[in-house]
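Shipment paperwork, digital attachment
Item: protein structure file
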Amino acid sequence: MYLTADDADKTAVRASLQAWFEGDTDAAIQHGQKAGYDLCRGTGAESGWVLWSPASVGQGRALWALNTSAEARGLIVETPHPEHDLDTLPQGVDLVRTLGARALITSGTHRCANTTASQCSGQTRVCTGSLALYPESDMAHTLASRFQAVHEAMAGHYPNDLVVSLHGFGDDGISLSNGTTDPISAGDPVARLALALEQQLPAENITSCNAFPGGTTENRLCGTTNVQGRHLNDSPDACTQAADQASQRFIHMEQSLTIRQNEASAVQAAFEALLSD
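Attachment content:
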């Protein structure tokens, strides 16, 4: 079961994060409790991390962890389908730890947990076997979620950070996009990541939905209806309207099961190259 978020829930989530950003720990805890979360500070090697963990189970609430270190790097990792897209959550955890990334945001539910349709545009065969609207429990395709509220708060507070949305698909290799199918320059993040992945995984099929010099272009799964991508790409309505252009802050990354399970080091090395440029 997934419990959708109402406006009060989302407001409390944003208020908790904003209070933390402003250094008001007590207010962050209080607003977190209103949203149904406990705040936990890491210890030892994870002493710089703070986790917002659901205070009760069984409602499918999102979880998120923030790297409070001054050395945190400008990458926010999102895993909207951890229970369906196998191994994307372990991959995301490994990425933020290895890279010292800014944050991890993950769904706490299966994307097909609810049968009620999302109000947002787009269709899928994933949950029913036939083409249907995305369900409201799909964090990549609904605005009525704590996941989206956290995404918006993080992206707004760290306006120069990249956001990568990790996914799994049944095709081979990796498909990248910036949330659109528009051409890009060789210096844009999707192009740089694609070339870094090609270098790390020369035998794999690395494609981009965004054409760029030296890249392999193929529109496989391009994330054009992903609401986090639409938000970052300044859509006037992330729920129903595709973005007119890309901000170059969003990376939609579809991966084969082989990549997710066996190529952690190669993917990490590619992201290291992206962040080091």
